[in-house]
């Protein structure tokens, strides 16, 4: 029988105590030790953003060893790959893989086609934004599933959340449930009842909740990257920056907003680092 997508923090069922520390952050408090000396393995899709970093940290807190998987897909904000590497190091992941998948070859998204401007007018309910990348999550989750089966991982950790699924069809609970059914049918491990479970611990959370949880966990927020602009510093104008900044201010961490980062680099809010930045 196909298992359902896990959306609660208790979803990883096997737990193991093994403390870890993040530079400049306190260690995560883990669940009590089990009798097993071998923590279960999880694959975390790691974009370099706040959401995926928080999801990976939750998997670690729940007792998993974690392998990070990131994608160089021709995104204009390739800076996020540097952030993914920094997060993988800070969280002391078992491994971190970066796979090249050139989705920019056919464009169709503001994130892969420089001719399409990045939206900055706010999220519109029921409207799929131009930052949707055709088929991206389906490709990424399929590759994550391949790695999970090859390594015997029990979970595939995703950072999708309520902010995402309000606009993106491949971040919604019904999509995740359908992909779980596919995973159970399409893999040897799934057919044998040993397949990886998709775990989306943030799926019902808004950005403010994610920020609060990231702070509780000691996630290195300053090392993460959410901006879509393709600049060297967060632009503060794109929808992704604005949503993140509002959540940080609400959490009392205005020092981590894009405006604060730019001020530290002596750049005024809204100024572009590169000529032609169209965010």
Helices and strands, with pairings:
Layout lengths: L40 E5 L4 H12 L3 E8 L6 H12 L4 E6 L35 H16 L3 E3 L4 H4 L7 H14 L1 H4 L5 E3 L7 H11 L21 H12 L7 H7 L15
Parallel strand pairs: 1-2, 1-4, 2-3, 4-5
Helix pairs in contact: 1-7, 7-8
Protein described:
The protein is α/β, with parallel strands linked by helices and 279 residues long. The protein has a domain at 41-206: 3-Layer(aba) Sandwich (Rossmann fold). Helix content is 33%, strand content 9%. The chain is built from nine helices and five strands. It has helices spanning 50-61, 79-90, 136-151, 162-165, 173-186, 188-191, 207-217, 239-250, 258-264, and strands at 41-45, 65-72, 95-100, 155-157, 197-199. Strands 3-2-1-4-5 form a five-stranded parallel β-sheet, sandwiched between helices. The radius of gyration is 18 Å and the shape is globular. The relative contact order is 0.17.
């Amino acid at each position: 029988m196909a298992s359902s997508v896990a959306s609660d923090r208790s979803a990883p069922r096997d737990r193991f105590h093994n403390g870890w520390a993040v530079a400049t952050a306190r260690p995560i408090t883990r669940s009590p030790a089990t009798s097993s000396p071998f923590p279960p393995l999880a694959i975390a899709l790691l974009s370099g953003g706040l959401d995926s970093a928080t999801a990976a940290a939750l998997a670690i807190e729940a007792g998993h060893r974690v392998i990070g998987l990131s994608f160089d897909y021709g995104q204009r904000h390739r800076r996020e790959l540097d952030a993914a590497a920094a997060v993988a190091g800070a969280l002391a992941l078992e491994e971190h893989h970066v796979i090249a998948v050139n989705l920019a070859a056919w464009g169709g998204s503001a994130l892969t086609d420089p001719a399409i401007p990045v939206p900055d007018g706010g999220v519109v309910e029921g409207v799929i934004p131009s930052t949707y990348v055709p088929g991206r999550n389906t490709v990424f989750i399929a590759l994550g599933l391949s790695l999970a089966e090859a390594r015997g991982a029990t979970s595939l950790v995703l950072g999708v959340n309520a902010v995402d699924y309000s606009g993106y069809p491949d971040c919604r609970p019904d999509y995740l449930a359908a992909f779980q059914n596919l995973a159970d049918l399409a893999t040897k491990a799934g057919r044998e009842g040993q397949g990886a479970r998709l775990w989306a611990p943030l799926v019902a959370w808004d950005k403010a909740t994610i920020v609060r949880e990231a702070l509780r966990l000691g996630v290195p927020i300053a090392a993460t990257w959410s901006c879509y602009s393709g600049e060297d510093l967060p632009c503060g104008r794109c929808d992704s920056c604005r949503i993140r900044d509002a959540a940080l201010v609400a959490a009392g961490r205005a020092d981590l907003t894009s405006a604060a980062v730019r001020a530290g680099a002596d750049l005024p809010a809204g100024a572009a680092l590169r000529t032609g930045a169209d965010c």
